[in-house]
């Protein structure tokens, strides 16, 4: 007698064939989902390189904006971006890392902690324009910082703080508990344990989160425009209270003009901004790899 499947059920061979077909279809969809964005990215970057590479030169990097596109440069925007990122790092890193240490090592579980964790997770997904409006009211109007680099850095610090806190907490959680207990057993207190055991082991993940947060901040435009950063600056900022511009704002200014020469200058500035962002990501990877090897 032959084994026939009950009515309404397929033979096992057909089930296997159907499973293989579904797996192949899923792989094809996944491959397509990878190829299409990569092709779009390659086309966009290739077009930008073709348009902006001939414009890159020493004069372009050391020049100031001009009404003539062939004479326009990015020195004020480049200097403003460097000062902005440096000050943002000085504000965001100690506050973010300190908050992560307190939440992970000192705070006691409870309703308040649950509320804090929910708030941080929510703030990490808030659009940047919301931070911009908050910063406009607090830093610019209430504190009277005006259109200064300090106001811009405080705004960007507020933007990336949730990211730094969450990344630092995840890095601290990767440190095994038995290493903390071993430090306590040898007579070390909580601060000594954090400084000599926990932080060195968590530092690769902490640095990666910090640099990725700064890489996000360097490309933000909406918060800086909202707090009143200038679109045309023909001087290099010389203090924390100086008016300023940044590369994203300069690019936005040039790309919104009708002259084709400014579009070429914007493409060149985009290449400079991409180089800065890629350098920051490469630095994060290098630091993480080096620290992991040292720990190993």
Describe the structure using short key phrases:
mainly alpha; 2 domains; globular; about 300 residues; about 75% helix; MetI-like fold
Can you give me a brief rundown of this structure?
The chain has helices at residues 12-52, 58-62, 75-106, 111-123, 128-142, 149-173, 177-185, 190-217, 222-226, 247-255, 260-295.
Layout of secondary structure:
Blueprint: H1 12-52, H2 58-62, H3 75-106, H4 111-123, H5 128-142, H6 149-173, H7 177-185, H8 190-217, H9 222-226, H10 247-255, H11 260-295
Helix pairs in contact: 1-11, 3-6, 3-8, 3-10, 5-6, 6-8, 7-8, 8-11, 10-11
Task: Walk me through this protein's architecture.
- The protein folds into two domains: 14-55; 59-295, MetI-like (MetI-like fold, Orthogonal Bundle), CATH 1.10.3720.10.
- It contains eleven helices and no strands.
- It has helices at residues 12-52, 58-62, 75-106, 111-123, 128-142, 149-173, 177-185, 190-217, 222-226, 247-255, 260-295.
- The longest helix has 41 residues, at 12-52.
- The radius of gyration is 26 Å and the shape is globular.
- The protein starts with 11 loop residues before the first helix and ends with a helix.
**Radius of gyration over C-alpha positions, nearest whole angstrom:** 26 Å
The number of strands is 0
Task: Give the helix tally.
Answer: 11
Strand residue percentage: under 5%
CATH topology of the largest domain: MetI-like fold
Give the averaged pLDDT, no decimals: 83
